[in-house]
Amino acid sequence: MARTRIRRGLDADRISNLPSNVIDNILTLLPLHDAVRTSVLSKGWQYKWITVPYLVFDWTFKNNFSGNYSIESIIYQVLLLHRGPIVKFKFCGFKFGPDINNWLYFLSDHRVEELVLMNSGYDPEQWLISHNLFTFDHLMHLFLANVEVDAPNLKSFYFNGALTSIYFKNASCLREISITCYPIFRHTTSEAGDDDSNMIKVLGQLSSLTRLYCDRGFLQFLAKGGVPQKLPVNLNSMRYLLLNITDFGFKYQVCSVLCLIRSSPNLQSLRITSANGSAPDMMSATQFLRARE
């Protein structure tokens, strides 16, 4: 009787006989540490997890992380055993180290479509992204936080997405910037200071910039911390300004626009568009600007 019950239990294991793509979908819904744990279910499950296309090392993984192995050694083992494409790779909640550039080199050949790298360290200079980041031919979604991109020969920068902070350093070759974004912060402003003004921190060192496109979200971001009348160093190479504001009633966007114009003495082309079709509150904007004089 006992043998009969055991046999019926084995026959009832229908999950193991599902198509591999269905099993992959099931494992994808599990946190990575749980997907790996399925390897102890039976000999047939020992390596089913190695084709999971989503590798997520995040706070959930960190909270379940235990043992004498470092997170770096675990990731090396996962990548070494993995087979097939890696659609998503996420690494956040840990402090970055030099190993991550080796991972990027490995991942660049695995058709990664979404890459999320969030450094838990507060100093982005502790880790520089290598040129391997720019070799992902299938990459469609990139999220970076608390990192520094080392690209001293960069000439053009285009960004579209959510923005918490962005700064440029060692970018003497940068000629063109286009940023369309929705800032992830609740806007506050104060009197401008060198240590607080986003306008100064982001654009204050880009003396070679010739073309700049800012949408209303980025103009609002530049206004955070206060907007100076003009930048400490003129943008003497600036020739083309393309600016999109919500409307002229959004006062701090207008301040950002005026600061950029005042700081570009050799400007040749200026285009300002409004995203709001309603009539702007010109009187409110005028009163606000006069109060700042």
Automatic annotation (TrEMBL):
Matches recorded under InterPro entries: F-box-like_dom_sf, F-box_dom
Record lineage: Eukaryota, Viridiplantae, Streptophyta, Embryophyta, Tracheophyta
Cross-referenced SUPFAM superfamilies: F-box domain, RNI-like
Domain F-box: 15-49
Species this chain originates from: Sesamum calycinum
Name of the protein in its database record: F-box/FBD/LRR-repeat protein
Top-level lineage group: Eukaryota
Regions annotated as coiled coil: none
